């Protein structure tokens, strides 16, 4: 072991070098030596905080995973989960497409379809109040909006690139899902407007909220056509009080009796034991006595652990894990997956759900930024029906002709979904058998989709 004084001097020299000579290497303080229980790997991982507001001490927490091979030549991909208020590390990294998933007995298991096979992946907990991200001035939490989130995310990126200058010339992509259907276009638009020089090449949105009425009302047909609600309930749910009306009334605190009755009817018929985010997947029945609720879906080899969310929560709440991640809990007693829900650190302005972002996609396409919208086709929360019609409508509005007609796409000799491309720049795809969190239930197909998207290729047409 080195003497303490020597380590201290070495640290001072490193700090001085970074201050006066400019940053020439990645920030060593944020480098993860190893995560508790992780298998040995050859790539590097970093995590820590980037301050986005110096005065109010607001800082966003990130986890950065370098590509398994050749990181310098691979693109940089930012991943954002939605909510609003949910964590990209607890969900995106640990449940969907990070290098490891939490397994039994406190070990991390290698994910063979992790996105860092194709890219350097940056997971960001945003806005402040989500996960390990915080604002020391708690008045920030009173009302957080889309506008604030986009602005903080932009500042985060500017400062992150200063810390990681090696990545400033790589192709840059922004990806995410669900409410990130707001975050991603809004951030991309800000990048374009401020002429931030990030090499932004494209964005990909999974089961995104893009237009309140179209997205939410596609739920009725989805539930009905999958046999989850009856003909008569479908009729009421479309004719008497539709889902966007129900949600709008909930947001404004004036849910009418007739709408409430239909809402209850729908959810009684669907049953509590259905995962709304994947209507074909089993639910995690017990998070206490971890029985093996493992589902064989479609392929024998593909096992899905439906209790992985709970494992991610306990993993990220371990002190040794937090230390290894350079994370701290500021103003909260525990890490939670979504902080605008039950624990309510953060009050997100839910009226923002009604802001349409589909038109922003149009202006991004106009700025030559590649846009992909994809849908896990078993999701009833933001079903494929709404997303597909929104993209189709946008293409018409922009006058983009179909360049790849609606067809099946393939992965490992099976149909992995359907796709259509407009003007070689705007595309839509489904992922067959996938949930709202597509890479969770269809990791292999999702990785195939990412790979084609990053390369700017249409999805593979035949086995
Ligand atoms: C906290 O933020 C609020 C709103 O931005 C501001 O008015 C207030 O002065 C800040 N408090 C401190 C202690 O800086
Ligand atoms: C949903 O209900 C509202 C209010 O009744 C109505 O304006 C809207 O057109 C309906 N949308 C659909 C898709 O039925
Ligand atoms: C519910 O509240 C919103 C916003 O305050 C208002 O615009 C709307 O008219 C109200 N609806 C009903 C049915 O009272
Ligand atoms: C895209 O560009 C076209 C042609 O310049 C313009 O007419 C249209 O309004 C633009 N659309 C958006 C959504 O910015
Ligand atoms: C789109 O298709 C129409 C009809 O085939 C054609 O007239 C038009 O030139 C095409 N537009 C582009 C941009 O290729």
TrEMBL record:
Signal sequence region: 1-25
GO biological process terms on file: proteolysis
Top-level taxon of the source organism: Eukaryota
Keywords for the protein's UniProt record, in alphabetical order: Carboxypeptidase, Disulfide bond, Glycoprotein, Hydrolase, Protease, Secreted, Signal
InterPro entries (UniProt xref): AB_hydrolase_fold, Peptidase_S10, Ser_caboxypep_his_AS, Ser_caboxypep_ser_AS
Assigned GO CC terms: extracellular region; vacuole
EC numbers for this chain: 3.4.16.-
Enzyme class: hydrolase
Major site of localization recorded for this protein: secreted
Similarity remark: Belongs to the peptidase S10 family.
Protein name stated in the entry: Carboxypeptidase
Originating species: Mucuna pruriens
Gene that encodes the chain: SCPL45
């Amino acid at each position: 072991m080195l003497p303490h004084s020597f380590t201290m001097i070495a640290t001072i020299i490193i700090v001085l070098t970074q201050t006066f000579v400019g940053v020439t290497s990645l920030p060593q303080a944020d480098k993860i030596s190893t995560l508790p229980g992780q298998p040995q790997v050859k790539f590097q991982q970093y995590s820590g905080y980037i301050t986005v507001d110096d005065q109010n001490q607001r800082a966003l927490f990130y986890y950065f995973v370098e590509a398994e091979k050749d990181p310098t030549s691979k693109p940089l991909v930012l991943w954002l989960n939605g909510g609003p208020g949910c964590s990209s590390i607890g969900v995106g990294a640990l449940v969907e497409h990070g290098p490891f998933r939490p397994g039994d007995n406190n070990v991390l298991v290698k994910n063979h379809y992790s996105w860092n096979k194709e890219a350097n992946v940056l997971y960001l907990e945003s806005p402040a109040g989500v996960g390990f991200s915080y604002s020391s001035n708690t008045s920030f939490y009173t009302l957080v909006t889309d506008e604030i989130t986009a602005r903080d995310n932009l500042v985060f990126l500017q400062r992150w690139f200063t810390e990681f200058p090696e990545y400033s010339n790589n192709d840059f992509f922004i990806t995410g899902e669900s409410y990130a259907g707001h975050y991603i276009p809004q951030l991309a638009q800000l990048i374009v407007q401020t002429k931030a020089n990030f090499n932004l090449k494209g964005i990909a949105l999974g089961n995104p909220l893009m237009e309140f009425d179209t997205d939410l009302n596609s739920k009725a047909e989805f539930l009905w056509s999958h046999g989850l609600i009856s003909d008569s309930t479908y009729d009421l749910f479309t004719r008497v009080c539709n889902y966007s009306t129900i949600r709008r009334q909930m947001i404004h605190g004036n849910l009418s009796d007739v709408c409430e009755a239909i809402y209850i009817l729908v959810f009684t018929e669907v049953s509590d034991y259905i995962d709304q985010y994947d209507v074909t997947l089993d639910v995690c029945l017990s998070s206490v006595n971890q029985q093996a609720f493992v589902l064989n879906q479609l392929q024998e080899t593909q096992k899905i652990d439906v209790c992985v969310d709970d494992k991610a929560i306990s993993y990220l709440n371990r002190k040794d894990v937090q230390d290894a991640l350079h994370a701290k809990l500021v103003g909260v007693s525990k890490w939670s997956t979504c902080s605008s829900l039950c624990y309510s650190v953060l009050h997100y302005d839910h009226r923002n759900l009604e802001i349409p972002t589909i038109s922003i996609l149009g202006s991004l396409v106009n700025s030559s930024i590649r846009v992909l919208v994809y849908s896990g086709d078993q999701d009833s929360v933001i079903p494929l029906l709404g997303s597909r019609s929104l993209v189709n409508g946008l293409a018409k509005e922009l006058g983009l002709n179909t360049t790849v007609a609606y067809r099946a796409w393939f992965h490992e000799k099976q149909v992995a979904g359907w796709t259509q491309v407009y003007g070689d720049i705007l595309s839509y795809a489904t992922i067959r058998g996938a949930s709202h969190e597509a890479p969770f239930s269809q990791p292999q197909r999702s990785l195939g989709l990412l790979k084609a998207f990053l390369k700017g290729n249409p999805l593979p047409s035949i086995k």
